């Protein structure tokens, strides 16, 4: 504990001094304007609890930036603070996701604090690396657009990409939820259940947080501790993680196939439209239309392009349940709970994976046979056509 730190409660705010009272700074953050009558420090974790009369209590979850603060840090353009050990808690959803209690728990995962003297010109990135230097997760200040509008009334459209890292001047906080990168999602695809954005939990161990600001790199270790309530052999946890990553990667493969397929279809459709009225290219247009129909059929095997809400999938509209709708919930179930995946869930995944292999083979055949044949036909007419992705 930094013995130079003093805390002060006044009629309207909470204050802190890191130089034994020579100067004070506001600790209010999200504390309302209220009298702070008492301040206590948790005996083990060190969190500060401010007592008020009429506004309950206010808790500052992590005091690491205050304890490590110095004039040297303040003079630097950027700084990464030490990350406290994080526990790999096993969380389970409540009775209803729509109910919210009066309080708010600290974020689940590791709290990563960093200092910015001023807003940087480019993006700020935070990467989590394993012991071999492999990047498991990447957070960025670049905003990722959601498939759905912010005010979408459908409560089932809750899936959102991660929030961007804050880049305002001052001490900022990022939260790593102790998870790997999630799967890629088919753009605009409806999902009746599951969350592709959420990756599996990392195993207990030591990782590295790597912050990049204006090309300068800062690193600090991150210790992930096991949930003390969970008594599962390490080998079973490793088997669960390996399985969850397999399912995640299969879901990503689906999204990549659909993305490339859509690009090819858009190109073919656009080029075909330019041949309107060209009698010499009539046969080429016919073959192009046939390829577009083949691409439509292949996409419909992976998901429901015509589904507008998830009920279209549940009700059997637009073709009912397809591979994407079957694998998406499996992606979430694979890392739910603790322990090796049971045989039934492995069998389900094996069946889906075989179907995915067949679709992937069809896509490869289109790229290696149908598309080159179409391009060869176009070249015979001295026409540029479609590039192979």
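-> sequence recovered:
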């Amino acid at each position: 504990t930094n013995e130079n730190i003093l805390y002060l409660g006044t009629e309207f705010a909470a204050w802190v001094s890191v130089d034994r009272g020579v100067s004070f700074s506001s600790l209010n953050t999200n504390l309302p304007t209220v009298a702070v009558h008492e301040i206590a420090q948790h005996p083990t974790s060190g969190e500060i609890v401010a007592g008020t009369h009429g506004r309950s209590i206010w808790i500052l979850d992590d005091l690491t930036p205050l304890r490590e603060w110095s004039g040297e840090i303040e003079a630097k353009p950027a700084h990464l603070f030490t990350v406290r050990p994080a526990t790999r808690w096993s969380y389970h959803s409540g009775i209803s996701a729509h109910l919210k209690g009066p309080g708010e728990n600290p974020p689940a995962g590791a709290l990563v604090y960093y200092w910015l003297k001023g807003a940087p010109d480019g993006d700020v990135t935070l990467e989590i690396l394993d012991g071999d230097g492999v990047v498991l997760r990447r957070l960025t200040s670049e905003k990722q657009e959601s498939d759905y509008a912010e005010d979408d009334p459908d409560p089932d459209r809750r899936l959102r990409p991660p929030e961007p890292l804050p880049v305002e001047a001052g001490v900022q906080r990022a939260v790593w939820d102790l998870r790997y990168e999630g799967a890629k999602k088919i753009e605009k695809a409806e999902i009746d259940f599951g969350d592709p954005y959420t990756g599996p939990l990392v195993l207990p161990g030591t990782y590295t947080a790597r912050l990049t600001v204006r090309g300068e790199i800062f690193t600090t270790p991150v210790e992930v501790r096991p949930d003390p309530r969970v008594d599962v052999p390490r080998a079973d946890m490793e088997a669960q993680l390996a399985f969850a990553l397999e399912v995640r990667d299969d879901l990503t493969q689906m999204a990549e196939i659909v993305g490339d397929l859509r690009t090819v279809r858009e190109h073919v459709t656009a080029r075909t439209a330019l041949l309107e009225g060209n009698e010499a290219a009539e046969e080429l247009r016919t073959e192009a239309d046939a390829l577009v129909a083949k691409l439509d059929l292949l996409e419909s095997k992976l998901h429901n392009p015509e589904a507008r809400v998830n009920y279209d999938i549940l009700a059997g509209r637009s073709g009912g349940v397809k591979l994407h709708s079957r694998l998406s919930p499996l992606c979430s179930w694979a890392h739910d709970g603790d322990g090796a995946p049971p045989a039934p869930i492995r069998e389900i995944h094996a069946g889906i994976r075989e179907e995915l292999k067949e679709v992937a083979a069809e896509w490869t055949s289109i790229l290696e046979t149908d598309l080159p044949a179409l391009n060869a036909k176009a070249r015979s007419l001295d026409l540029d056509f479609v590039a192979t992705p």
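Helices lie at 64-68, 71-75, 234-274, 282-302, 310-314, 323-333, 343-380.
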